[in-house]
Amino acid sequence: MRTLWTGLGAALLALALGCEDEPTLDDEGGSTGSPKPEAPRECIAPEGMGSPASVEATVDLINALPKPTSLPCFLESLDRPLQIAATDSDRSAQPSPGEENPRLFITRDTMILSVLPEGPGSDRLEFAVDVGDGLSVKGELAFPVEAEIDVSEPYAQILRNPGTSCGACHDLEQHWETVNEVPVFASEALQYPAEDDVSPAYVDALAQTCDADATPQRCAMLTSVFAHGDVTPQRLPELIRICRLLE
Ligand code: HEC
Asked: Domains of the chain: which residue ranges?
C-alpha cells in the first residue's frame, strides 16, 4: 500500500490537514481492568529485550525473534504493561476506518510505535522517537520480517527523494543524523484530536470478542496487544500538535 503515501494523494491529504497547538482535554486514569488471565505466548523476548525504547533496541528484539517474524509475533513479545492510546482518526498513513479497527499507539519512554489491526498500513510498524521541540525521528518496518535486518532498515524503508514518505503530512522535515550511511529524518510530531480517541478498554473488549474465522488478521493483531497482560491507557504527549481535517 506504499502508493497511498506517496505522490499527489498524500500531498492533497496533507494540504487538507490543519494542525494546531491545543491541550488534550481527557485525562484517562486507571487501567483496563486488571489483573486478567494472560494467553500463553509463542513469541518470547529474550531476557532483558522485551521493553525496547529506541529504534535500535526494537530492531534487536525483532532480530532475536523466530523468522519469519510477523507483526503480531513482535507485539506479543513485548513486556507488559503496555501503554496504549487508540484512535479512529482516518487522516494518517494508517487510516482507521472506524472504532472497530482503531489505530493503536504504544508508548515506551520517548518512542511511540503505531499499528493498525487491518487494512492499508496494517502490515507496517511505524516509529516516532521524540527528539524535542515538537519533532520526532520517523521510521517504518514492513512485516513479515524474513531475515535479520540492519538497524538502519526502518529509516531506509521510508526514504523518498527528497526526505521521507512521512514528510507529506509531518511538516518541518529535516535531516537529523545518519545511521550506517542511511539518512535519518525528523519531522513534526502529530496527534489526533480528543474527539477521535477510542478507549483502550473498548479495544480490549473488541479483542476478547473478535471472530478469528471472520477476520483472522484483525484478531491476531488485537489479541497480540491485549491478551498477554495488562494494558494502561496513555494518551499521546499533550504538547504535540493536533491534526484535524479542514472542511
Ligand atoms: C497522510 C498523512 C500522514 C502521513 C503520510 C504520515 N502520517 Fe504520521 N500522522 C499523521 C496524523 C494525522 C497523525 C496524528 C495521529 C492520527 O491522526 O492518527 C500522525 C501521527 C503519527 C505518529 C504519532 C507521534 C508522532 O511523533 O507524530 C507516528 C508514530 C507517526 N505518525 C508515524 C508516521 C510515519 C513513520 C510516517 C511515514 C512512514 C507517517 N507517520 C506518515 C498523518 C500522516
From this structure: 2-7+44-240
